[in-house]
Amino acid sequence: MRDFYGTTLNNGLMLGTAQYPSPAILADAFKRSGASVATVSLRRESGQERAGQDFWALIKELGTHILPNTAGCHSVKEAVTTAHMAREVFDTKWIKLEVIGEEDTLQPDVFGLVEAARILTEDGFQVFPYTTEDLVVAGKLLDAGCEVLMPWGAPIGSGQGLNNVFGLRAMRAHFPDVPLVIDAGLGLPSQAAQAMELGYDAVLLNTAVAKAGDPAEMAEGFAMAVRAGQLAATADPMEPRDMAEPSTPVIGKAFLE
Amino acid sequence: MKLQLNGAPIEADSATLSDLLVAQGYGEARVATAVNGAFVPATMRATHTLNDGDQVEVLAPMQGG
After folding, report:
1. What is this model's ipTM?
2. Which spans in chain A are helix H?
3. B-chain residues within 8 Å CB-CB of A39?
4. What pTM value is reported for the model?
């Protein structure tokens, strides 16, 4: 498995921490799935309620790697400032860089993304850019110093799976040494398995687990699918063919006409 | 002086950002701060003086995807 800025993960499941019915169910989803990375965010804190402090205590208990995001940022300045604040609060160089460019699809603003990635890399961050499957953008992100790419499977929270399998396969082939993560759009474990079968190193998802009727059960399902897909990728799958070919040997078959 | 704290208007007499955090109940909370859109590291809060009209943001860990 390719490493992420020198860190080897136990498995290829990165799980979000938002939208769960309760903190206990969130913790159970992480426990049953064994997810190796938890994504987190920053929001305004009330001096009276101090909700963020309880959440921080919960996250530390998970024992996973922590990947803070810049979710909701629409400009380079906003994303860069948020990244600096996240680095201090979460005590990590890792940042899931989101610069959103379009409201309906939450498609990344890839121009701002490349610029922010360059600024943050120069500031010592290890950037995980949320991008599209565009190979030109991917190349520019690598030039900016990114050592990981996270193309979307489908729009965030849509649960549609891998909308452009051709593009994602091309990205895997084009950057054979770069760790690649499918970030966003997955709805079912089968789609995670498909991503891993394509040779991707990890999947990052949130809504598909958190909004399932039984989030912990779904989280475990995703973990098994990720493992299955990873095994398939390393096992060198057969090539599909157009016509049937009997799997049972014909030689020695009785003549019974 | 009048400040904006996380988007809400407040009256404060804190000279520095660290004084304001104590006065507003944050104490030793794990938070990150920004003033007028610029990040202020924890190590700089004690020397960061506040001015009338400053916009202060205090952020903490939160659920995210």
Report:
1. 0.94
2. 23-33, 51-62, 76-90, 110-122, 135-143, 165-174, 189-197, 207-210, 215-234
3. 64-65
4. 0.93
